[in-house]
Amino acid sequence: MTNPIALIVDDEPDIRELLEITLGRMDITTRSAADLAQAYALLEQEHFDLCLTDMQLPDGNGIELVEQISSRYPELPVAMITAHGNMESAILALKAGAFDFVSKPVDLQILRRLVEAALKLRQPKPVRPQAQSPSATTNEPKLLGRSPAIESIRSMVAKLARSQAPVYISGESGTGKELAARLIHSQGPRAENHFIAVNCGAIPHELMESEFFGHKKGSFTGAVFDKEGLFQAAHGGTLFLDEVADLPLGMQVKLLRAIQEKSIRPIGAQQESAIDVRILSATHKDLAELVNRGEFRQDLFYRINVIELHLPALREREGDVELLADHILTELARKNSLPKIGIEASAMDALCNYCFPGNIRELENTLERAVTLCENNRVTVEDLQLPETATEGEECNPDRPLEEYLGDIEKQAIIKALEETRWNRTAAAKKLGISFRALRYRLEKLGLD
After folding, report:
1. pTM for the whole thing?
2. 180, 179, 197: which is closest to 243 by C-alpha?
3. Is 28:2 a contact under the CB 8 Å cutoff?
4. Strand, coil or helix: what is 49?
5. Half-sphere exposure (CA, 13 Å, Cβ side) for 198?
6. Partners of 239 in the beta sheet?
7. Cα separation of 242 and 234, whole Å?
């Protein structure tokens, strides 16, 4: 492969020279332009693998160049050079289609990492051997479906994977927000590095700073060794903040600074350390409404919501339920070493006509329970245990808490098993495919003991 070629657009000779020398040492050929006119002329004459442009140019704005490149040369990653601390310009550039940004004075280490990430986009992905067994790829993220809604999401994910812009993934519970985040990571230039997912609502408030930024030995009572935080663990890769709405306001301030400065300071450390992390975030809550109520910082909201990816509910994905159900049943058979699991046509019709307030997660739970209850490895309508409400033609209420909803379904399945075994708990546990201790715990939890 020939040396990559970069286009540098900046009206300051010193900056152009610095960038030319830095990229030259990385075996990158450079072409330079002092304004937009020269840049457009060079783009017409030659193929480029990367573009670095200043925000303020003598004959216009760098955002204009970003927009033109995104429109006319969509395969060309362009990074914006912004004034120090000018996050508004950086966000505008990312929204316009910039791959990433770097602030003045240019940190050469950050610049080199940015360039390396951008150039990975020009490298073709390795072709998988045809003889590879299907089971070898079962752990890879997949976005299944043929509906227009999911085709649109698949196309958007491919575009987002080529950028380093923060993405906010919205959607109801169970729509696959973490799956979308993993796809954005796995299809982008950071795929070889770590994808770190964290549920922000599951970390005790008093431990959050240590969990995110790490700590030094002796920095507080109980800190008996140095601890790496989530940002350090995700260095070079992606940090996925699930349920970001659950972050307390105090932690939101610290998170905002880490994202803006691209650096963190572990508890007890004397100096900050640079971090190279792409931020993806998600929540099923209405984050804009939380901002209006003062429960989520507006500045952090704008910083993580540079681009929004909204995942459709399962009821909005016409025709996808049957495909998803077949896939889930195949996976359940594989995991449990069972022969192919069949499903009666009436049962599939019931699934397709049900609105699934819990979305794909509810579909998975419904089928997993049905496989446990079914006879002769064939799922019937009765095995599905679908509630009589929220079927086709009736109002679907996705606002009902998912845990409450799934708890009712679990209760119905347990009661049915107990009735069929004349309330013999040992036999009911066996029928449900769980241990006696697990059944006893569920009976107490659901108030059935």
Report:
1. 0.80
2. 197
3. no
4. coil
5. 22
6. 196, 279
7. 15
